Amino acid sequence: MAAGASLIAQLQAIVGREHVLAAPADLVSYSYDAAPGNVMPSCVVLPRTAEEVSRILVLANDLNVPVIPRGSGTNLSGGTIPVEGALILATSRFDRILEINEGNLSATAEPGVLLGDFHAAVEARRLFYPPDPASARIASLGGTVAEGAGGLRCVKYGTTKDYILGLEVVLPTGEVIQTGGVTVKNRSGYDLTHLMVGSEGTLGVVTRITCRLVPLPAAHQTCMAAYDSIQRAAETVSAIIRRRIVPAALEMMDHHSILAVEAFRPSGLPRDAEAVLLIEVDGAPAEVESDFKLVLEACREGGATSVRVAQDEAEREVLWGARRAHYPALSRAAPTVLVEDMTVPRESLPEMVARVREAARRRGLELGLAAHAGDGNIHPDILTDQRDPELMARSHALLEDFIRAAIDLKGTLTGEHGVGSLKAPYLPWLYGEAGVGALRAIKRALDPNNILNPGKVLV
Ligand SMILES: Cc1cc2nc3c(=O)[nH]c(=O)nc-3n(C[C@H](O)[C@H](O)[C@H](O)COP(=O)(O)OP(=O)(O)OC[C@H]3O[C@@H](n4cnc5c(N)ncnc54)[C@H](O)[C@@H]3O)c2cc1C
């Protein structure tokens, strides 16, 4: 539904004429994200300051217009797909890194900075911001904060929530608040910072981010181990963890994924393998050397048919590039990909792998399976086609099988991609009505008119 002339004029008065998009051709690319589905927004507004965001939200409350905050739109859970009549509030003009503080090991930046650019800026000072979703080159810092993103390096370093010290947030009713601060410790009041991290644009618009940095690791070693059984690969993951090694990254890809990646971006993955593990250890040189020896030992004892050690930085990049290409490669292999994100306790990974494969076989559906295996975070991505209603119904039934299996194994329905609109109906399965009721009470208190990203997280 197109926005009325009066709304457009009032938005233009706030941000300037050129920062409101309303022509249908300009709106199309804001009508979808990386999850299936699309709805045209009524218009797109591109503010530059927290004060402008505040005025937009006050106006939206007055006119009862839903507002969808949007970074790069790479989320996989439908978090930025508009609802009918909604306007998109895009953060791309908030694009400055404001400070990298080497004395405090912290940085402050605006939400529209691309995560890859942020990584490069801090790494140029030999500092490190570990959160590393495979979409890092294109995802916005604000989007990863609102999504509580994870990625490849969580097994050792944790997720986005472990790095955020403070935020500037515009509440749904327009008040600009500061949560947390710049200190490592902070016990002043309720922890609103970590309420906002992962709130998926439903509780406020993040306009400034202060995060913790750590020293850039001095050394790393990377390898790829191939297996003729995915179960053996999954069991090796537990064997590595049991040896008290915490790799920087411990990833798995199944046969289907290997073939899809090789067709999309040939990287020398073994096409005949049933699964590969990609493993990196980092830290001080001596520690890296001894940990890497134990990793290679665990891979061989776990039945690896071959192990390839990256000989230089270029080969390391090829291996990680292959893992990052997993989702784009699958998108080439099927018209629609339902990207799944269940997480189970790490020792239950082999059992979860067995259950998702058996469920897919029973439903007659194909999977491309990858996992941030060291975290117990499994991506059994369903290859499907949203133009075929029967196939989609079966795909959703399979998704429900996965969620039931994860909950049964004491896991959770999303480890990093968020609830969005895709998983919102299943939240009560995890927390029960009372648990979801507590989430609703928070949403009502902060957003009494339900204008900020309605229908996401909570239905
Ligand atoms: C190829 C690919 C690989 C991926 N790999 C991973 C991975 O390994 N690990 C992982 O965790 N995720 C992964 N993701 C998904 C990941 O969630 C997103 O890439 C990222 O976290 C979102 O950033 P974005 O800028 O695209 O945010 P968007 O998609 O624009 O928004 C995400 C959510 O945050 C909200 N939002 C955005 N900006 C703000 C703001 N400033 N204030 C308040 N709310 C806001 C939106 O409303 C939405 O709900 C992948 C996605 C792709 C496409």
Distance between the termini: 22 Å
Ions, cofactors and other bound molecules = flavin-adenine dinucleotide
Low-confidence stretches: none
Strand adjacency order, main sheet:
15-12-14-13-17-18-16
Write down the CATH class of the domain at 97-215: Alpha Beta
Q: How many H/I helical runs?
A: 15
Beta-strand fraction estimate: 15-25%
Q: What overall geometry do the principal axes of the alpha carbons give?
A: globular
CATH topology of the domain at 97-215: Uridine Diphospho-n-acetylenolpyruvylglucosamine Reductase, domain 3
What structural category do the secondary elements indicate?
A: alpha+beta
The value of Rg in angstroms is 22 Å
Sheet with most strands: 7 strands, antiparallel
Q: What is the mean pLDDT? A: 96
Question: Percent range for helical residues?
Answer: 25-40%
